[in-house]
Amino acid sequence: MSNTTDSNSAASNAAPASTPPSAPPSTWIKRGIIGLVVLVALVYGAIFFYANVLNDAPDALDTDDLSEALETTVVEADDEPSLETAPSAAAPDEAAADSEDFDGLWTPTTASEFGYRVDEVLGGVDVTAVGRSSEIDGSLTIEGTTASVDATVEVENIVSDDSRRDGQFQGRIMDVANFPTANFQTTEPINFGAIPADGEQVTATAVGELTLKGVTQTVTVDVTAQATGTSIGVLGNIPITFTDYGIDNPSNPGVSLEDEGIVEFVLVFERG
Questions:
Q1: How is 9-48 classified by DSSP, letter by letter?
Q2: What is the DSSP track for 115-181?
Q3: What pLDDT does 40 receive?
Q4: C-alpha angle with apex 108: 163 to 101, nearest 5 degrees?
Q5: What are phi and psi of 83, to 5 degrees?
Q6: Closest Cα partner for 109 from 65, 77, 132, 79?
Q7: Alpha carbon of residue 209 to chain centroid
Q8: Quick one: which of 5, 43, 100, 136 could link to 108 by a disulfide (CB 3.0–4.6 Å)?
Q9: Tens digit of pLDDT for each residue in 50-95?
Q10: d(CA 204, CA 192)
Q11: CA dist 262 to 30, 117, 237, 265, Å?
């Protein structure tokens, strides 16, 4: 019994275990600042990596894209029956371009592209957003040296390299549930002045109407046309201001945009 009492007495007389001293407030503040700096660096590093590595926005459509699209159509046509009429008596190297060779109705092919190009600022880093579709409905009607264009695209088919952007574009920005299509059509024939030689590019000015989100505006656009034996391509881009089409500024807390963008297209047609 005495042994137990002595043990308890010894335990009670033992010095309490020491505890480490707490860090002064200034240390916690420094640690918090360092942590915040690291977090900001990680966030901006991720944004920079996305903008310069993962964001694979294609270049603006140009005359090289027009030629390449026509070459793609020619390759596809090689495996199909010829759409040309019976050859004339003239030898191929003596035959000249004739407006009657092109007169008539032409329809879009999947070598076409129609979409948008918008500059974004993502967390202070410049990013270009591009969305396109190759599923175009419409027609090209040629009469002599003039042409009329009508092109319609299902807006939900216009996609970029970011599904989150596409969700915003198809939802609150373009409201595809109520305005499923976008359209460009000429309101007067485009006069190219002459029939171009095979592979030659010619330019002209087109006057037409662009319809976005149910709002139609008159536009004037410089277009470039090129023809091959079986297909015709038309290149153009139309600067737009979003508010002109009832489109609210697409900016959100993470992404800032100007109130303008570009509708760009390469339309490739074959005989209808």
A1: HHHHHSPPPP-PPPPPHHHHHHHHHHHHHHHHHHHHHHHH
A2: EEEEEEEETTEEEEEEEEE--EEEEEEEETTEEEEEEEEEGGG-B-S-HHHHHHIIIIIT-TTT--E
A3: 45
A4: 160
A5: -95, 0
A6: 77
A7: 21
A8: 136
A9: 444 444 678 999 999 999 999 987 555 555 544 444 444 444 433 4
A10: 6
A11: 47, 5, 6, 10
pLDDT: which is higher, 100 or 219: 219
Whether the model clears a pTM of 0.70, i.e. scores above it, the answer is: yes
> How many residues appear in the chain?
272
Element (H, E) at 130: strand 125-133
- pLDDT tens-digit profile of 222-268? 999 999 878 999 999 999 999 999 998 888 777 788 889 999 999 99
> Do 221 and 208 contact (CB within 8 A), yes or no?
yes
**Taking the chain, what is the end-to-end CA distance rounded to the nearest angstrom?**
112
Helix (H) or strand (E) holding 221: strand 215-227
Encoding tokens for residue 258? 């100007």
Give CA–CA dist 128/198, Å, rounded. Answer: 35
Residue 199 neighbours by CB distance under 10 Å: 12
Let me know if 69 is exposed, middle or buried by CB neighbors in 10 A (0-12, 13-18, 19+).
buried
